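REQUEST FORM: STRUCTURE PREDICTION
Request ID: SP-0412
Submitted by: Lab K.M.
Chain count: 1
Length (residues): 309
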Amino acid sequence: MKLAFFDDFKLGVVKGDAIHDVSAVAKDIPHVGPGDLISGLIARFSDYRAKLEAAAAGSGTPLANVRIRPPLPKPGNVVCMAVNYMENGTLAKPAPLNAFHKAPTAIIGPGDTMVLPDVPATIFEGEAEMALVIGKRATKVAAADAMDYIFGYINFIDGSARGLPPAGNVFFQMKSRDTFAPIGPYLVTKDEIADPQKLPINLWVNGELKQSFNTDDMAHNIARCIEWVTSIHTLEPGDILATGTNHRGLSSFMDGDVVELETQGLGRLRFNIRDDLKRTWSRETRLDRQQKGQEGPTHQLTGKYAKEG
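STATUS: Completed
RESULT:
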């Protein structure tokens, strides 16, 4: 099942090119906003699934006629795995398990805009990722049981403002900025994804393919990530765990860009980039630079904070 919010955060089920308003089915779930509603529905999904399917019969409304909103507008936790890909086998060994939080206010949805802030970042990037959504309270979960705790999957972008001073003061100010976590368009229940460890992920910037990799390149698989994160803190229904990216295709995000992300089976997420300072960078990817013997992202070309030389 593909769950979505649309227009003024009506709850919908997506079938083909149509969305079905199923808000009435879930109206008895205690909530003060759409974030509570979807978390409550996830926690009680077995009680509502048949009712949702029945409510989604008929023709529905064309997706082209509605505004799709983020399917998880206010998750309690947004946890992101760090350096969790083998970069197409080019790393000698997996990096140690590591993760960081993004603020719930980083969440935006399809058609929304990632806003690049007025800070001296060396570059702004967005990492294509598949994220899992927790279905039930998860504390100290063993890897052997971890997949039972997944409700479903979403497309996820991990926005980054890299290189901010002072050196070493990294993840919070780089990752947790407002609008830096586009998700969607739908929340897809796990039964629709046969093997989440074998999914192609593609990201386009202005129609040009930049990232293209497969979840089978993860250094630490999904079950191990859940095991490790829940050994540190509890995850609740509706929480997001993003599983990392292959960095070789990363490139700059700039004002006016249209970015699209598609993970097989999860739909296509499309969003915009705005930079009021109109800064520019080369369009080189990390891989482009590696092939020329250069490391890391390209430097800023023009605009505020650009350096000479």
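NOTES: The chain has two domains: 2-69, 78-302.
Reviewed by: T.R.
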